TrEMBL record:
Source organism: Priestia iocasae
Descriptive protein name: Peptide/nickel transport system ATP-binding protein
Family statement drawn from the similarity comment of this UniProt entry: Belongs to the ABC transporter superfamily.
Keywords in alphabetical order: ATP-binding, Cell membrane, Membrane, Nucleotide-binding, Transport
Stretches assigned to coiled coil: none
SMART domains linked to this entry: AAA
């Protein structure tokens, strides 16, 4: 069976002082139908750039897809025109962001913004769009949708706004939803409700979700598979149980070690010693984790580890594993 989405050798680069640097570097993965796949890593690891590449929302002035393919249901999204991509976005692939206030228009009613998506992708009357908007609001757990439909974003709580964003994102029943830190800005109880809602919608609508998060608790709760990114590259990709019980990559292990214990205050993931190298200081060859890795060897600065299958369904890019050494006929970056 063909995957819903297949990203092949993707490179997304940013122009900094006249030079192009890869924020996403030779990334490949598949997303199967009806799966929730987490993408984890510290900030600056390329998670958001990767998702903006998939949905065609990269800032045009200073970024571009410089190599690779993004194949969604047989169509390479990376080569679509803006016009063609506008037809895909919102209909086949949707995205929700961390702060719904920035993606909702403050001067338009909730109903107007929902109807707009419906009108963009379907031939539907004003009255029908209003009816459907109310039904959609109801389906994302908003009580009194007949009232909310005429309200403005600022009249709603953060959790309600995120529900509205989800309603807009699923209005045309996309097969893929990208959720970029969808609960980070919300308080803990609301977070749990939004995650439950996403899971419920995923099952009802038979969609796949790419869940971008720095929170391994969210991964454990929600995901079937996990992709771990470091400095623009995928370093590990496996199912969620294997990730927690048999992690291979030293970066993944460090992330797991940084999960706060139950009796500690919640902390961000960047408790691993050192920082992600900045785009302009990325080493041309070798492993990008080398300066922070407890297992670093001499060859880690000379050979770029390749993401390869270490065992069935478990891909790793680390020179501690033979499979990660470059092989002939395989594209290296
Ligand atoms: Fe550490 Fe080397 Fe593996 Fe990179 S390739 S994670 S430096 S052991
Ligand atoms: Mg981000």
């Amino acid at each position: 069976k063909t995957p819903l989405l297949e990203v092949r050798n993707l490179e997304t680069s940013f122009s900094i002082n006249g030079k192009w640097h890869n924020a996403v570097d030779n990334v490949s993965f598949k997303i199967n139908r009806k799966k929730i796949v987490g993408i984890v890593g510290e900030s600056g690891c390329g998670k958001s750039v990767l998702s903006l590449s998939v949905i065609g929302l990269l800032p045009k002035l200073n970024s571009r897809i410089s190599n690779g393919e993004i194949v969604f249901e047989g169509k390479n999204l990376a080569e679509l025109s803006d016009n063609e991509m506008n037809k895909v976005r919102g209909k086949d692939v949707s995205m929700i962001f961390q702060e719904p206030m920035t993606s909702l228009n403050p001067v338009l009613t909730i109903g107007y913004q929902l109807s707009e998506v419906l009108h963009n992708h379907r031939n539907i009357s004003k009255a029908e769009a209003r009816e459907e908007s109310i039904a959609l609001l109801k389906s994302v757990g908003i009580s009194r949708p007949e009232k909310i439909v005429d309200e403005y974003p600022h009249q709603l709580s953060g959790g309600m706004r995120q529900r509205v964003m989800i309603a807009i994102a699923i209005a045309c029943q996309p097969k893929l939803l990208i959720a970029d830190e969808p609960t980070t800005a919300l308080d803990v109880t609301v977070q749990a409700q939004i995650l439950d809602l996403l899971k419920e919608i995923q099952e009802i609508n038979d969609m796949s979700i790419i869940m971008i998060t720095h929170d391994l608790g969210v991964v454990a709760e929600m995901c079937d598979e996990v992709i771990v990114m470091y400095a623009g590259r995928v370093v590990e990709h496996t199912d969620v149980d294997t990730l927690f019980y048999d992690p291979k990559h030293p970066y993944t292990k460090a992330l797991l070690d940084s999960i706060p214990k139950l009796d500690e205050e919640a902390v961000e993931l960047n408790t691993i010693k050192g920082i992600v190298p900045s785009l302009v200081n990325m080493p041309a060859v070798g492993c990008r984790f080398v300066d922070r890795c407890a297992h670093a060897m001499k060859e880690c600065r000379e050979i770029t580890p390749q993401l390869a299958s270490e065992s069935e369904g478990h891909d790793v890019a680390c020179l501690l594993y033979k499979s990660s050494f470059p092989r002939e006929g395989v594209k290296t970056s």
